[in-house]
Design brief:
It is built from 6 helices and 10 strands, in the order αβαββαββββαααβββ. With 265 residues, the protein is of the alpha+beta class. It is globular and about 55 Å long.
Length: 265
């Protein structure tokens, strides 16, 4: 019996309690058949004093969102929509690499089920489909601070797992694991593997900083893509990330520009 045969598509706490390999992440865990946004549910719980590691998963979202308030397509029964609560003892400027750490953990989880993803800075996971790289997952990190300290961070992840169709405005840019590989996947297995990889990376990040998380992100990085406008009409190619998680872009003259996620459209 392979590890994959242990899983079904059951996302209920009763099923996952027997399969989680984590100490904190996903403990406690709440499954919702439908909600507006898992990030909103976790943020409300954080304000009420919920513990680090709280996980909320929804089968469907009516107001799922990505960066820049973009709508995240969230139909029922197909994909994985989750949010985690973190309470790291960090200054706000130290938290940016957590988005890349999350992407690396998700890429590791998908590699375990035979998928070969690429990560596009700062928060996209890509898969090859119909001759081009298309977005299959995204990350939304929302942070609350008190002065110069992080109060809490909500890390939201959306993965297009078994979806076959997308709204017309997304059809040319999005894909799913099923469309990219031709086979269905168990959402529960992806969730369990992601939580395990994330907890290992997060614990190392808190103890030793971002070096290992960034190295893992680079393993899957989709560099050499055309970067957006940087400053003053300058365009360039993404070549690396620095220790703060900022993107390094080389322009046509060879100059290096540093781009933070707040400047990214």
């Amino acid at each position: 019996m392979t590890e994959d045969t242990l899983f079904t598509d059951d996302l209920t706490p009763e099923f996952l309690a027997d399969h989680l390999r984590t100490r904190r992440m996903g403990r406690p865990f709440q499954f919702l058949p439908i909600c507006a946004s898992t990030n909103d549910v976790v943020r409300a719980a954080a304000i009420s004093g919920a513990e680090e590691g709280l996980l909320v998963v929804a089968d469907c979202q009516t107001a799922g969102r990505g960066r820049q308030k973009r709508v995240w397509h969230s139909p029922p029964g197909q994909n994985l929509y989750l949010s985690l609560l973190l309470r790291p003892r960090l200054r706000p400027q130290q938290a940016a690499p957590l988005t890349l750490l999350t992407g690396a953990a998700l890429a590791q989880a998908l590699a375990r089920v035979g998928v070969a993803p690429r990560l596009r800075w700062p928060n996209d996971l890509l898969l090859p489909a119909e001759g081009r790289w298309r977005k299959a997952a995204g990350i939304l990190m929302e942070m609350a601070c008190e002065g110069q300290s992080v109060r809490h961070i909500v890390v939201g992840v959306g993965v297009n797992v078994n979806g076959r169709e997308f709204p017309i405005e997304l059809a040319e840019r999005a894909t799913s694991l099923l469309l990219a590989t031709g086979r269905p996947f168990h959402r529960a297995q992806i969730l369990v593997d992601f939580l395990s990889a994330f907890e290992i990376g997060y614990d190392d990040f808190l103890l030793h900083g971002a070096t290992r998380a960034l190295a893992e992100w680079r393993r899957y990085a989709a560099f050499k893509q055309t970067a957006p406008i940087v400053r003053g009409g300058i365009e360039g190619l993404a070549i690396d990330v620095d220790e703060s998680g900022a993107l390094l872009v080389r322009d046509a003259a060879g100059a290096i520009h540093r781009l933070t996620s707040g400047e990214f459209p």
